[in-house]
Amino acid sequence: MHEPTASSPDGLGPVRADLLIRNAWIVTMDDERRIYRDGGLAIAGDRIVAVGPSEVVEHAVVARETIDGRRFELTPGFVNCHVHITGEPITRGYVPDDTDWRTNVFDWLIPTYMAQNPAEEALSAQLAAVEMLRSGTTCFVEAGTIIDLPGVVAALEQVGIRGRIGQWVQDRAFDPAEDQAQLTAAAIGRLEDQIARFPARDDALLAGWACLVGHNTATDELWRAASALALDHRLGVTAHMSPDPADPQFYLETTGRRAIEHLEAIGVLGDHVSLTHAIHLDDAEVATLARTGTRVTHCPMTAIKGAYGASSAGKFPEMHAAGVAIQLGTDGANNANAQDMMRAMYLMAGLHKDARRDASLFPATSVLEAGTINGAAGAGLSDRIGSLAVGKKADFVAHDRDRPEWVPLLNPVNQLVWSADGRGVHSVWVDGKRLVDGYRMTTIDEERLYSDIEAAADGIIARAGKAVSSAWPVL
Prior knowledge:
Layout: E1 15-27, E2 35-44, E3 47-53, H1 54-60, E4 61-68, E5 72-76, E6 78-83, H2 101-115, H3 118-134, E7 137-142, H4 149-159, E8 162-165, H5 180-197, E9 206-208, E10 210-214, H6 220-233, E11 237-241, H7 246-255, H8 259-265, E12 273-277, H9 283-292, E13 295-298, H10 300-305, H11 316-322, E14 326-328, H12 333-336, H13 341-356, H14 364-371, H15 373-378, E15 396-400, H16 412-419, E16 425-430, E17 433-437, E18 440-441, H17 446-463
Parallel strand pairs: 1-4, 1-5, 6-7, 7-8, 8-9, 10-11, 11-12, 12-13, 13-14
Antiparallel strand pairs: 1-2, 2-3, 5-15, 15-16, 16-17, 17-18
InterPro entries: Amidohydro-rel (IPR006680), Metal-dep_hydrolase_composite (IPR011059), Metal_Hydrolase (IPR032466), MTA/SAH_deaminase (IPR050287)
Keywords: Hydrolase
Organism: Novosphingobium olei
């Protein structure tokens, strides 16, 4: 028996809806993981008011607009829990393939970030948002490398994506001449300011987040302050950690404990914390993550591009078995070269199967959970997004079945993870607004954006003191 889809406010008649999509495949990701072969979804304003079999939903609502959805598979919007939206999208792919982690970060990426101006940073953010939306991502958590936060927020507001964002925050004094106390006070002040300036209200698409650069760049005092602020404001903390053995080695040398063990010792771990990469861990650290409820954001595209060792050293299967909540991220465009969460899901599904020669690891259902409901929880929004259920925000994606990779449609979850990618995203709604319609943005002039990006890229690279190299002659 199907649950009632909705009722009108007075309980006397059908629900009034702005939009009804009927006759679609619907992968709800609700608590029962229901999938409707001939499903209906209705929204009013920014909320879902009905979802279920088409026949039931059609009788439950009176809609201003109706779409025949037999061409579509509907899913919740994906949640990208780690993405650099500035610096890298505007210089996509110019970092040579053969750079190791340290060279990539210190010799290429940081100079690129420092070379951009506020206008270019805003353009980069818009490009990242457009790419995410057009491949089905409706919400993201920024990786903590924004410099001009107000300018980026204004740029993103024009696009309409949902996000949790923060500016570049680190405080460790690597130069003995620096004033450590002053650096820490300034970093904490930046966190406090962005949380106050961009509060996480229920109706806020964009909100400040406790984003730390992570690695070895944050002192214990900054970690404690970020954790306390997040808990006080019901937010989260996100930080890079252990993509390379350099992170655990630093903590061992300076504290006598590995990175995750040290963070537990100073009392900052918990389900409000998401650590990105978390590749070079030992078994005790995996147990610590599970015991504290700390989340891990897996970025498989970056791991492969940067040779981080996720397949050989990563303990993601052990984390999953221990109950660690794994969510997904696409990271930076110079590492992953795409902000397509469906590509990240495909890699997560296959990477560890092959590494362990165990086909049972990370089935498509678990991977889709990582990209939707786990990500929603990591963004502090599990009560609002991540599944298609009555009362949730109307953030959803229409995947186009009128494409060869979607035919025949027999298993909608396997098809989504193994066969399809973001190029098949036809339409996207965020907060009840249709931001992508027929493969095109409705809120921003894409041609102008792409032209502006092309014009700006060379200048940033030149100011960073870099050049685009090619193994083959470019004539």
